[in-house]
Amino acid sequence: MRQHLYIFYAFVFLLNVVHVFWPNTVLFTIIGLLGIIMTAISFPRADRVFRTLGIILVIAGTFFFLSSDATIAEIPRFFAGNVGILFLVSMLPWMNSAVKAGRYNKLLQSLLGRNVSGLGPLYVRSEMTMVSLAAFLNLSSATISQDLLREQLKDVQTKVKNSFILMATLRGYSLALLWSPLEVLLATSIFITGADYIQVLPWMLLVAALGLTFDSLIGKLMFRRHQVDFSEKVNRGQPTGKLVQFILALVLFLSVVVFLGNVIELDFLFSVTVSILPFALVWALLIGRRRSFWKIGWPSWKRSTNHLSNFIVLLLTLSFLTESLTASPYLSYLQDPIVALAGSPLLIMLFIQAAFLVLTLLGVHPIATMGIFGGVGGLLIESFSPVTLTVLLATSAIATVPSAPYGLIVTITSVALRMNPYQIVLRNLPYSILLGFLGIAVALLTTAF
């Protein structure tokens, strides 16, 4: 039965697609009921750490649910909120298959390893490569880059290799999110403040540049003692034309996502999800790799979808917690400190950064925290200009991404590296705090202009 779970999961994802185009309460409830069944099936198959997290999230969600006015009939809908994210996770292997079929992973290995004598310089190049990939591929960039680095560093001690990969990829990913117009957290902060993206962009690029500079220096110093010879592992003869071809494909993929989001007006997450398979297939056809694409992609997709247990347990129980918290009276209590700090801009900035970080560590998605501050947006606008507030909110939210124990990117990394999510959090927490402070510094700088 386990080998055919992908059929059931694909059916649930198909219902989610139908719901996007035909919003219906009954259909959403059915998706939620199927989500509960998915959770029940996946729970005994999930790793111990995810079973533990799932139990904690359900207990916390139940507490908030009992304190709310929500009815038992609404519980299934509370489990349906993250099915779209699961759909995205299940589609990621198709993009990776196109990259492997076109042998672009060899090209990227060449770029990562060329003229590099050790892990210190490789860290800088890896992080910059991750920033470039994440700007186009979003979550797909994590799996592609991590696969490449695992192969590149297969002879390196496991502890050092895992630290290198989780730092370079997660931190580089967050730096790309800071300025990407497609990033949901940035878009949400702009929606709350009413700021102009073009006015915000230079300041967000400044935060990203400072973050990359500081973290590259830190990473280079941390790994400078580890000298590894890549000369026998890297093919240095990759043609320039293939690099141009790869960049063109990434730009076209971004264009498709922008078209679906801005012209067809689909949700960003859904736009990325439904674009992956058609785009990857057309890409494989154009480069004459259709047969390789299917040969790699179909078994990879089935295997990946059959083994979604960790993601299902985490994301669906997290959806229950988030929805229960939103419906409970405890949500309003989180807004009270903002009112108390009115008139002290720096204290408000520090509180906002701390709130994002603490709530993220407790399992509250930054989008939910953003909604909390959106509820007092009028009060915050009295203390800050729209640009300043946007820089503050966006940076504080995105800084938590590498340190979110229940976040999708951390979960993907924990599964790939077979690590406890909290080990990843501890390694990246100093970076999240540093990036948050850089965001506050740049937000203060905007007040001078």
UniProtKB/TrEMBL annotation:
Name of the molecule in the record: Citrate transporter-like domain-containing protein
Keywords: Membrane, Transmembrane, Transmembrane helix
UniProt key word Transmembrane: yes
Transmembrane parts of this sequence: 6-37, 49-66, 78-95, 170-194, 200-223, 243-262, 268-287, 308-332, 338-360, 367-385, 391-417, 429-448
